[in-house]
Amino acid sequence: MSIEGLTSQCMGVDTFSTSGSIAGGVIRILPICVREDGDFFASERFVLIIFSGSPAVVKVSGNNNSAIAPGCLCFSESERAELLSSDLDKMVRIFFHPQVVNSVFTFENVYGDRSKLTITERQDRDFLDPFIVRTQNYFGYLPLGPATYETLARLLRMLRGELLDRQDGFWPCRSRSYFYEILFLLFGLYRDGGVAHSVIADDSLAGKVMHFIHCNYSQKLLVDDLCKRFCTNKTTLNKAFNSLSGGPLLNYLNKVRINTACLLLRDTKLPVQEIVYRTGFNDIAHFGRMFKRIVRMNPGEYRREHTQRRIGDVFPAKVSSHSSRLLAPKRSPIWP
Fold first, then answer.
1. How many CA atoms lie within 13 Å of 225's alpha carbon, on the beta-carbon side?
2. Is the pTM of this model over 0.85?
3. Pick the CATH number of 205-309 from 3.10.180.10, 1.10.10.60, 3.40.1170.60, 3.10.450.50
């Protein structure tokens, strides 16, 4: 079945009826769809956008926000963000109705009084927080580390395989199980501090420099070089940057680099020395001092504390013989 055919069945307003019996031969249509093309939003559907390649600039509520790849964007059914620059051919969208999470969910009760939900329903509702909750520093963007990205890719391949192939009567159950794992993975990032601060990428001097830093933090960046690139001087640049970010340019650059180092420390087994150079530092001692100043512990302590919470340990790559064939990706520009 083509992606378009799948969409026509899964995206209709009335197609998430779950009446009937699988054992009786009635195919259950799930309120979920995976697409690689077409619109980025749909009526009465949450959307998860997974992207790789170049950083994206996302316009939400009038603000342009920078989102480093790989990452994902979590939007509610009422949000209509605009992607101003990105590799559109390296994006996958998952559209879903909250009923796929819990059969009693509607758009009314997931936004309503939580006390009216059972304990189990409240727990299920929590997994929708990345799509619903918005703060000054969170617009729906979650950065993905290498291991998290690979795990998400594996789960998405399995989900797509079940939705497309429908090998037997248990495909709705398997599809939902893979989707639950995806939501659990994202909620873990959201809950455990994997949320990146919103980065205003407007047309101001500071906004342009801020976005440039997020795209090039791994390179050697000097204030003098930035001044030349953006045709300004140190005084003007620092004043503009301080006004937008609330602090000096170099402090911001170091925080971006250390945040990325944290992602690599908890999500990979790369040697610390390699992480030092991949995040733009050229001296391991300086990196250690800066890391401890910002994170309040040294890199080794941070890695040990997060080892048991590494996504690869939470979701080991164990699948049944039936599902193992789904690990081979279908043709998709985002999954290598």
1. 8
2. no
3. 1.10.10.60
